[in-house]
Amino acid sequence: MAKFDAYEAITAQIIAKLEAGVRPWHMDWNAGAGAGFTPPLPRRVTGEHYRGINVLLLWITAQERGYRADTWMTFNQAKELGGVVRKGEKGTPIVFFKKLTVTKENAETGQDEERQVPCIRSYTVFNVAQIDGLPARFYPAAPAPIEPAPTDGKARDLVREAALHSCGAMIHEGGARAFYAPGPDTVHMPDFDRFETAGGYLATLAHELCHWTGHKSRLGRDFTGQFGSKDYAAEELVAEIGAAFVGAHLGILGDHIDNHAAYIGSWLKALRNDKRAIFKAASLAQAAADMVLANAGQSAIAKAA
């Protein structure tokens, strides 16, 4: 029997979604869920949010099965709380990383040397919607629909804008393009009135701010790639996923204005060539999202969401 390869299995899952024209980090969350429903950031039984690649994996399952609750737990955790996973329910595999110490001979000295290498491990969790008998606090009330922004684009969401501006980026508004300029280290946004909704403006700003985090003075990502190149695709993937994480924290309803279809082919190529690429992108995206919201404060985030 072939050994299970979590990198290959998860990458294949993401590839299948992209081949179907679906970005796993930006699901059609309104389908069957009522207008104005945003994807909740998945939480552990402790209340702590999952991070990185596990967010994508749990979002995929939640969208496919229509889960609206944000809490996930193992079979044993459910049992300890008095809950019972319903017969026939299928869990969702997620991953964690641990360091293993290996011994290898140094080719130059001939001496054995110890070094630590990351090792991926998989385990299974269930959404609380799959579990009966848990304490009432784990079963959320039906969320109230979020009022969509006016389609005339005039009503700005100043609370969420303030949360995004708290990162300290130099943001210029005006013109017709949204982009981050690494040289002057500035974010450029189109005039607000060019957007159909406030959510579209905020999602676009979150995307460009995730690019901003990659400056050499901050997270130091590579901006040298030209459109269509591997490096360019990798950076766009980081900004895409990072903006989704930011949007989930702030409850942003909207999508940024770039043509995502133009990037899907390059993302597929990158993922097919490197089974670890999506893991790296998700990790970098999590760091970018953390930096964008680092100074927003929990009260500001809670008020926005």
Word description of this protein:
This protein is of the alpha+beta class. It has two domains: 39-145, no CATH class; 148-305, no CATH class. The protein has helices at 6-19, 53-65, 75-80, 158-165, 198-212, 230-250, 261-273, 277-292, 298-304; strands spanning 72-73, 84-85, 92-105, 112-127, 131-132, 170-173, 179-181, 186-189. A three-stranded antiparallel beta sheet has the order 1-4-3. It has a three-stranded mixed beta sheet with strand order 6-8-7, with helices on one face. Strands 2-5 form a two-stranded antiparallel sheet. Helix 5 packs across helix 6 (230-250) and helix 6 packs across helix 8. The chain is globular. It starts with 5 loop residues before the first helix and ends with a helix.
User: Compute the gyration radius: what is it?
Assistant: 21 Å
Order of helices and strands: HHEHEEEEHEEEHHHHH
Output the number of helix runs.
9
- Proportion of helical residues: 25-40%
Global structural class: alpha+beta
Number of strands: 8
Strand order in the largest sheet: 1-4-3
**Poorly predicted spans:** 30-36, 144-153
Q: What is the overall pLDDT average?
A: 87
**Biggest sheet, in brief?**
3 strands, antiparallel
User: What is the count of distinct domains?
Assistant: 2
Task: Report the principal-axis shape.
Answer: globular
Q: β content, as a range?
A: 15-25%
Distance N terminus to C terminus?
A: 47 Å
